[in-house]
Amino acid sequence: MSGRAQSFGTAAAADGRLARRTVEAPWLPAGSDAEVWVGDIDSLPEPSIIVRLLLTRRSGPGPTRFFCVPGAKGLDLPTRFLYRDTERPDPSRGVARLVTAVLGPGAVTTHCVGYVRNVVPVPDADYPHPTPWAHVPVVVVDGAPEPAVDGEWVDLESARDQLSTRHWWPIVEHHLGAAGQPAERL
Questions:
Q1: What Cα–Cα distance (Å) separates residue 148 from each residue in 35, 92, 144, 152?
Q2: What is the pLDDT of residue 182?
Q3: Which parts of the chain have pLDDT scores under 70?
Q4: What is the phi-psi region of residue 60: left when phi exceeds 0, alpha when psi lies from -120 to 50, beta otherwise?
Q5: Which of 12, 87, 112, 159 could disulfide-link to 41, CB 3.0 to 4.6 Å?
Q6: Any residues with CB less than 8 A from the CB of 146 and at least 6 apart, and which?
Q7: C-alpha 93: how far from its chain's center?
């Protein structure tokens, strides 16, 4: 993982930009919001509760495609729910395990291209995550490794109807850019 894991209070705002905010997010406790931050982010936000992997591929003149796996609600980015005691304090461990599960063993570099932040000022009895913030970062693997798991390569346009309601969609859309091409890293 490029960068080191650190707390993301104001550091996140310096490295990314707020792309979307859902006020009074219905899936969170009353009075809570969900934020989507995008950009090249040097470190993983803490606390992280889930990590997602964005693999991209470009072949020929068509749009860049990204890899999804089958999930309970249809196609989804490869995902790992982080263990409370071992991976949440150091989300890079969860990223490493997710990368190994999806790509198999081997060294790759990753970087964070955005995250979803639950902003929960007052949790209810059903909310099991840290407060006031809980993060779900999306990391990109540098290069074009082949997944070792079953899945499907899709592009923004063909997947829009099926996947645009996913919380991570604005991150993928921003990373691939309006033309479906990966944004250039500065």
A1: 32, 20, 13, 12
A2: 53
A3: 1-15, 178-186
A4: left
A5: 112
A6: 103
A7: 15
Are the beta carbons of 168 and 77 closer than 8 angstroms?
yes
Token readout for 20 is: 């979307």
Distance separating the N- and C-terminal Cα atoms of the chain: 17
> For residues 118-137, b (16+ Cβ closer than 10 Å) or e, as one string?
bbbeebeeeeebbeebbbbb
